[in-house]
Amino acid sequence: MAPPVPTQCKCGHDKHHPMVSPAGEYTTMGWVLILIGISAEPKAIRYVCRRCDRVIDRTTDKKVIADTQLWG
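-> C-alpha cells emitted (72 positions)
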C-alpha cells in the first residue's frame, strides 16, 4: 500500500490552486499512442505544484480523469 499523499505542498498550495497542474500517468501503450499523435486516456492523474515540484494528490477515479483537462 502506498503512503498517503499530502494535501498541501510546502508552498501552501492545494490541488485547486492556480500553481498546481494536473499531470497524466500513462501506460506504455498510452505513450506509444501519444508519440504517434493519438490521444490516450491516462491511468491516473497527479496534481503537481509548479513551484516546488511536489505531488499534492493522485487519483485513479475514472470520472475525475474524464473531467480533467490536461492541456490546452
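The chain has one domain: 1-41+53-72.
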